[in-house]
Amino acid sequence: MTFPFSIACFTKLRKTSITFIAVLITALAPAIARAQFLHPKISKKETTIRNVVILPAKVSVVRDSMKGPEGMAAESEELSGRVEKVLAAILEKQKNVKTLNTPSAASGEGDAQQKYSIADFQTKFDDLLPRIMKKRSDVKKGRFTMGDEVLNLNLDKRVDAVVFIRGQGQKLTGGKSAFVLLVGGAPAYLKMQIGVIDARTGEVLLYTDPLFAGDPTTAVDRLRKALDKGFKKLPVVTVQ
Amino acid sequence: MSTLKTRSLIAFALCFCVALTYVAPAALAQKKTAPVEATPPPVREEFKFGKVDLEVLEQVNLLDRRFERDGMVLEDEATNAYLFRIGQALIPKGLTLENVSWKFRALRDPQPNAFALPNGSVYVTTGLLSLIDNESELAAIIAHELTHVMRRHTYVQNRSNRKKFLTMNVMAAVGAYAPGGIVGAAITAITMIAPFIIVATIFGYSRDLEREADLKGIDMMISAEYSPEEMVNVMKVLDRDIEGENIRLFYNDHPALRERISYLSSYLGARADRVTPQMELNREKSAYFRAMEPMMRHDVQLQIKGGRFRSAVYIAQRLVDFHPDSENLFWLAEAYRTLGPRAPQLTESELTNSAKKDAAKKHEKRTDEEIERELLATPAGQENWKTHRQRSEELYQRSLAAENPVAMAHRGLGMLYEKLEKKTEALAEYEKYLASAPAATDQERIQRRIENLRRPPQ
Question: What residues in A contact B365, CB-CB < 8 Å?
Answer without folding.
Answer: 131, 134-135
